[in-house]
Amino acid sequence: DESFDIRGYLDVLSRYKWIVLAVVLLAFLSTLVFSLKETPVYRATGHVEVSQQPIRVTNFGTFASQADPREIMQTQVALIKSKTLAIRVIKRLDLDKNPSYNPALAPKSKGSTGVRSLFSKWENDVTGFIEQSLAGKNKKAPPFLSPQQALQQSIAGRITQNIKAKPLRGTSVISISYSSPDPRLASMIVNATIQE
After folding, report:
1. Which of 9, 19, 76, 184 has a 20 to 30 A CA-CA distance from 83?
2. CB 160 within 8 Å of CB 81
3. Which residues 6+ apart lie within 8 Å of 117 measured at CB?
4. What is the C-alpha to C-alpha distance for residues 162 and 10, in angstroms, rounded to an integer?
């Protein structure tokens, strides 16, 4: 007859208490390091209503468009996520002059210390390796782009990756959100996207 013997389990735990304590401590410390290293990301959200305007062909009257409302909404979502609109937002907000988007303007750090800096070099190396692997080695902007245009294309790529647009079901409203470590910047990009 095998029954549940709690004393047996307690004996095993007491024999291996240092190993158990080390595993728990290691899990706690790794979670703490990850939490301290992680940059908070803020999401700004706005809404825009898409209304279908009747087409005025003559002075005598208007005609309602026969376009499918779902197609209209999907077209608007695609336009919101486009690089063309992103470049207009960049110009409106002068994001090419913002150190968060222009590495040439970013302040140079002078040997920072602390837990965050322990992983900084490793993170940059890994990120660079992954970006090169995904994009192809030595991929650069096409030679016909000026440095300013290449910077705008790079920023537009970041914006289109971080902007989300989706139609709200059963309405003619599109929800637009943008994620960024800077809450003010996230809000400005959403508002500029809506205004454009």
Report:
1. 184
2. yes
3. none
4. 51
Smallest CA-to-CA distance from 165 within 11, 2, 48, 26 is with 48
Q: For 89-114, what is each residue's pLDDT tens digit?
A: 888 888 888 877 777 777 765 554 55
**Closest by CA position to 29, among listed 132, 150, 118:** 118
- The DSSP annotation for 106-121 comes to SPPP-S--SHHHHTHH
User: Is 190 in contact with 46 (CB distance < 8 Å)?
Assistant: yes
Q: What is the pLDDT of residues 127-138, one digit of tens each?
A: 555 555 555 444
pLDDT per residue over 164-194, tens digit each? Answer: 989 888 888 889 999 888 888 888 898 988 8
CB–CB of 182/190 below 8 Å?
Answer: no
